């Protein structure tokens, strides 16, 4: 593909060279994301809500200012890959062990019930089993990012409930990745014989387990690779290369690229340079991740939501998504006491990046219709919007309630 | 353009979905850049030499592992834009005033002579005047980055000669941008009447002067925009938006996008957050700039260099480029004494990013043939490779020579 360059189509808006057009789109997307995020945050909503809304406004169904083309798709994909890399970077095997039994229970139970409800709903509206399980997978992942941000804003990061929520959200992410591997393999199997399907599935799960276990161990023992003297940015560039490499490897194995990126993040989290990496990744993400969310929003076909039937569907899906997480997680956290269990249940409700990414994969693969895609994105946004105020109210309500950890460590942070 | 997604073409290398193929190319480009840079730096060569060589190896004329497609072009363009943004960020109007008369003389004289020689050579081989001036423009810009790195490695940043070199390199960059604006306008004028050409030229120069003068003043007086409390990355994202916005604006005016990015950097350099911005930009550049250099290398058609005639041409061009800079700059620096003048002359020799970008623009615009493009890139590389050892030898030679500034401040750095 060659790109002609005519730099002299002076003020001739329609006849600009392709690169200028793409630059203009990048500029629009980036600015819209910043403005959307700023407005959302001033309204005390998660930034991602503003970015997706901005994308929806710029997209074909409202203003039509941007058209999803290959460069934008690729930037959005890189954004998603780095986003999941950073989620992986926040995931430490050791810390998972510390949060212990309750968080594990909450995480697992908070995956099973929404998955079952989501799958059941999709079966009910008439999808086949593999497609329905793909829908179920989009119901699963709690947004660790959104919840952590809210808990941080409330100054509640040291409470037992917060630790359980964050630990469970991480377990949640790992299970969501396994589940995504499972449903993509199942989806691959439609029309293929069962033994082949089994092989694909085993290879997918094997990839995840081997990389996660062996990779983290290798990294923990030898940080040699990362101690080169010449280039001060070497640890970062090596880890970015690892991230891209495992993303490609995951794609080759029929898994989503983001699964590889997530595993790369988990591996990188075991190095001594983890804090540096997190800090250096932040500016990169500040530039690239908005492309992912704006493109996500731009793909929403608002017309697909424009009927009473579909809005009712959205209502049902949102209620199922909330009920699944809330019931699953609060039941599993009952040992903390009823009030704490309620807080944990509410804290696990927001769906975020991972669910949105799964929805995007479903749309690209032709598994989701415009309607299902729009419903799942809208559901993710709604759960993200209602959780922060609910959590705030609950914490205000129980400020004097029992919380052993917070009593010990309240002054630390 | 829609992208089909078939995640299940398991191990079927040829039938992978487009996004996976692009991811694979990104991975190859990124890793090749890192390996190339690492090898170059271990050989005491500038990293950019390794990155361009890696690109040349990956490209069509050797391995053929990567094909320049639109996403790669866009990533390379973003890399070039941020590269020039960071060059602008290092350019402070105040510091330019400090370096004073000698640096200004060196900068101007170091632009005029190479430009004249380059243009004359192109006229001699048979190009018309506008094309020849485009060739001349590619002869002009000293790589402040490469020289600064060498001086830093030698621990010579405090010497008078070093200050003159760096100051002159900055003036050099500004003049190169003005010149690029001039030659693109002239190029635009081929076949257009003179009054229109004059209008385009005035608008281009007007844009540069207005943005540079007014923009920096506005920024210096009110950093209000950048003092928002909500998002700690706001200064960065606002400046990135400014960078993309001015890049697009420059494109619309018929200028190279990088001119707008450079101006955005100069404006951002006047804010209080300059140091933070430089630090935050580094990881972003570590990810994106390699794409620019690898794509630059991949576009080299080695076959175009494969004849004795062309190699002789390359020799002549390189000698002209070296002679133009060396004579122009050392003459202008004679007031520092003969030895210092020689050091300044040698230090200004390496051509780098800006010259390479101009060559890329020339290729895209169809102004440069494959041969001219390959010759200019090769010339830039050769001047960058020979300067560091030459500078090292010269400084070793004159270690006891007179240098007022170094005597005062030797202990500081």
Could you explain how this protein is built, in words?
The structure is a homodimer of 413-residue chains. With 413 residues, chain A is mainly α. Chain A has a single domain, classed as Na+/H+ antiporter like fold (Up-down Bundle). Helix content of chain A is 73%, strand content 0%. The first copy, chain A, is built from 16 helices and no strands. Chain A has helices at residues 18-42, 47-58, 70-89, 93-124, 129-138, 144-153, 160-188, 194-221, 234-252, 257-268, 274-298, 308-332, 338-347, 353-364, 370-397, 404-409. In chain A, helix 3 packs antiparallel against helix 11 (274-298), helix 4 (93-124) crosses helix 5 (129-138) and helix 7 packs across helix 13. Chain A is globular and about 60 Å long. The interface between A and B is large, with 73 and 73 residues.
Sheet/helix structural class of chain A? mainly alpha
| Unreliable runs of chain A | 1-15, 400-413
Q: How far is it from the N-terminal to the C-terminal residue of chain A, by CA?
A: 54 Å
Helix and strand run of chain A: HHHHHHHHHHHHHHHH
Spatial shape of chain A: globular
User: Can you tell me the CATH class of chain A?
Assistant: Mainly Alpha
What do the pLDDT scores of chain A average to? Answer: 77
Any guess at the CATH architecture of chain A? Up-down Bundle
Largest sheet of chain A: none
Largest interface, counted by CB within 8 Å of the partner chain's CB: A-B, 73 and 73 residues
Q: Report the strand count of chain A.
A: 0
Oligomer designation: homodimer
Share of residues in strands of chain A: under 5%
Query: Whole-number radius of gyration of chain A?
Result: 22 Å
At CATH level 3, the topology of chain A is Na+/H+ antiporter like fold
Q: What's the number of structural domains of chain A? A: 1
Helical content class of chain A = over 70%
Number of helices of chain A: 16
């Amino acid at each position: 593909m060659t790109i002609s360059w005519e730099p002299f189509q002076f003020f001739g808006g329609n006849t600009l060279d392709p690169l200028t057009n793409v630059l203009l789109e990048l500029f629009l997307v980036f600015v819209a994301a910043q403005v959307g995020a700023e407005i959302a945050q001033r309204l005390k909503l998660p930034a991602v809500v503003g970015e997706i809304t901005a994308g929806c406004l710029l997209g074909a169904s409202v203003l039509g200012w941007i058209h999803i083309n290959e460069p934008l798709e690729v930037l959005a994909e890189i954004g998603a890959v780095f986003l999941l890399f950073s989620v992986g970077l926040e995931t430490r095997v050791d810390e998972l062990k510390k949060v212990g039994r309750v968080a594990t229970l909450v995480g697992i139970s908070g995956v099973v019930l929404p998955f079952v409800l989501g799958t059941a709903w999709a079966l009910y509206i008439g999808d086949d089993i593999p497609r329905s399980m793909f829908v179920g997978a989009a119901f699963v992942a709690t947004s660790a990012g959104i919840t952590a941000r809210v808990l941080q804003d409330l100054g509640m990061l040291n409470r037992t409930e917060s630790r359980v929520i964050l630990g469970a959200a991480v377990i949640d992410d790992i299970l969501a990745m396994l589940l995504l591997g499972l449903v993509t393999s199942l989806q691959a199997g439609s029309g293929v014989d069962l033994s082949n399907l089994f092989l694909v599935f085993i290879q997918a799960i094997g990839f995840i387990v081997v990389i996660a276990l062996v990779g983290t161990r290798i990294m923990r023992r030898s940080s040699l690779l990362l101690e080169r003297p010449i280039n001060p940015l070497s640890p970062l560039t090596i880890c970015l290369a690892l991230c891209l490499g495992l993303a490609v490897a995951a794609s080759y194995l029929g898994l989503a690229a983001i699964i590889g990126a997530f595993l790369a993040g988990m591996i990188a989290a075991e190095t001594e340079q983890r804090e540096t990496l997190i800090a250096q990744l932040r500016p990169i993400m500040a530039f690239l991740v908005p492309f992912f969310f704006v493109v996500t929003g731009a793909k929403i076909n608002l017309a697909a939501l424009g009927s009473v039937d579909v809005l009712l569907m959205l209502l049902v899906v949102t209620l199922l998504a909330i009920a699944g997480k809330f019931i699953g997680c609060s039941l599993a956290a009952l040992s903390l006491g009823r009030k704490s269990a309620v807080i944990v249940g509410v804290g696990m409700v927001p769906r975020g990046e991972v669910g949105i990414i799964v929805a995007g994969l479903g749309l690209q693969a032709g598994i989701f219709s415009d309607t299902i895609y729009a419903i799942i994105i809208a559901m993710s946004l709604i759960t993200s919007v209602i959780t922060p105020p609910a959590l705030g109210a609950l914490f205000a309500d129980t400020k004097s309630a029992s919380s052993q950890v917070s009593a010990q460590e309240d002054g630390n942070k």
